[in-house]
Design brief:
The chain is an alpha+beta fold. It is built from two helices and eight strands.
Length: 178
């Protein structure tokens, strides 16, 4: 057998060069695969935050015309799907049920504030609006951990009708306004 010296026409990579290239590619691929769980968790968290923002806007719109009185807001708890869209209760004749798509439970309650330091007209009638968002929820629509809401916000709301509204109409109940 005759030995041929390497020429430009029949040159190739050696086994060592191929092994080094495969090791570099493996390290790069493992690094990329290692980032997938972090990216997935970040995307899910971002989707939850977007849904929560949508729900807070919807809740604000829903409570604007409710009676300004301490206690749970009429209609509370509210249910929302994974995107933050409100799910209306369905009346099936004997009882009201909610669709199975519910993902978030939102409880809204008006509470007496400990103190109001804000200056402005009619803050003596201001109440704190406490909004608690729970997820996950079970099949009955109850929070899995009722002592730990996933998100919570409290803000002041009051009636802008003025303190003499009872003199104008004794049957009028002030509504929530901002």
């Amino acid at each position: 057998m005759k030995y041929l010296p390497p020429s430009p026409d029949n040159s190739a990579f050696s086994l060592v060069e191929v092994s080094i290239a495969m090791a570099i590619a493996a390290v790069a691929l493992l690094s990329i695969i290692g980032m997938i769980p972090t990216a997935t968790k970040g995307a899910a968290n971002s989707a939850d935050q977007t849904a929560i923002g949508t729900m807070f806007e919807d809740i604000e719109d829903r409570i604007k015309t409710k009676v300004l009185r301490a206690g749970p807001i009429e209609g509370s708890p509210f249910y929302y799907d994974l995107r933050g869209s409100h799910i209306d209760p369905v009346d099936d004749g004997e009882e009201t049920t909610v669709l199975n798509e519910r993902f978030f439970r939102v409880e809204v309650e008006l509470i007496e504030p400990a103190s109001t330091s804000a200056d402005g007209p009619n803050f003596e009638s201001a109440l704190a609006v406490q909004v608690k968002i729970f997820w996950p929820i079970d099949e009955d629509g109850e929070a899995v951990d009722p002592d730990k809401p996933g998100s919570e916000i409290t803000f002041l709301a009051g009636a802008q009708t003025g303190p003499e509204w009872t003199e104008v109409d004794g049957n009028y109940e002030p509504k929530i306004e901002y």
